[in-house]
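forwarding from the other thread:

> can someone predict this with fe (ii) ion?

sure thing
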Amino acid sequence: MLMDEEILWDNRYSLGINIVDTQHKQLFTLVGKLYALDNTKNTKEEFKIILNELSEYMKNHFKDEEEYMQFIKYPALEEHKQFHQDLIDKLAETIKSSSKLSILKIKIRIIAKRVLIEHIVNEDIKIKLFEISKINNSLIFDSADDKDEEYSFDITNIKPDV
Ligand SMILES: [Fe+2]
């Protein structure tokens, strides 16, 4: 993806989890707003207002997503929470930095790509894959003779097809 390329929502990013998908779409919209800002017309302060909006929305979204993962007993919850915290820290650190506006915009675009594309496509998609594997396992166990077999799921074997 090129730096100036617009980041747009695509249905292939959908996890099939309404609240999460709706929030992911809103994150794309907020990042779109950042991309739409013109260097010559917007001051650093205006840019920071949108950044703070993105930052707040991102935190609330991560909280909801973590609650959902907890609800479905997602096995890599702690690791996923750490990814969220790293993104929050990185964004906060960048917002606080006193870089020139042009530099700040470039840095933010890099983070936005990490939040929206890499995180959603590489990490959030594993939540969906986990749910699919749970359904498949329950179908297998339902038809198996030995129903005492313990359900297991190895997150390290998941390779998102993207
Ligand atoms: Fe996430």
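Confidence is low (pLDDT under 50) at residues 145-153. thats all i got for now
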